[in-house]
């Protein structure tokens, strides 16, 4: 293998690792042991805002970082969210690209899949 082909192979390998990191998505932000993302709890009272959110969230149908169950009271388990207008534990913004986490709304079994 000549030096030129070796350099091309190394460049391609670097690009593959780079794109694999982007394809991994937001999963790197979620800590399964503490049920947090970027230091914020992924359960509790949640308020949706348009500016200055704690986390940006994308709703997906497959391969979410977190399964979210919407509850009316006592959101004390990982993935349980109670939407409120005041005194939230966390503020989120729904986005279509470059989210901090990806979620899927479920009726049962909330948490990190």
Description:
The N and C termini lie far apart (45 Å). The strands form 2 sheets. This protein has a 6-stranded parallel beta barrel with strand order 4-7-6-9-5-8. A 3-stranded antiparallel β-sheet has the order 1-2-3, with no helix packed on it. The radius of gyration is 18 Å and the shape is elongated. With 113 residues, the chain is of the alpha/beta class. The protein has a domain at 27-105. The protein has one helix spanning 3-23; strands at 30-31, 36-37, 40-41, 44-48, 55-59, 66-70, 80-83, 90-94, 101-105. A hairpin with a 4-residue loop joins β1 (30-31) and β2 (36-37).
Annotate the secondary structure layout.
Elements: H1 3-23, E1 30-31, E2 36-37, E3 40-41, E4 44-48, E5 55-59, E6 66-70, E7 80-83, E8 90-94, E9 101-105
Query: SSE string, helix = H, strand = E?
Result: HEEEEEEEEE
Total number of strands: 9
Using only C-alpha atoms, the radius of gyration works out to 18 Å
Give the averaged pLDDT, no decimals: 87
Number of helices: 1
- The structure class reads alpha/beta
Which blocks of ≥5 consecutive residues have pLDDT under 50?
20-26
State the strand order across the main sheet: 4-7-6-9-5-8
Beta-strand residue fraction:
25-35%
In whole angstroms, the N-to-C terminal distance is: 45 Å
Query: What overall geometry do the principal axes of the alpha carbons give?
Result: elongated
- Largest pleated sheet: 6 strands, parallel, barrel
Helix share, percent = 10-25%
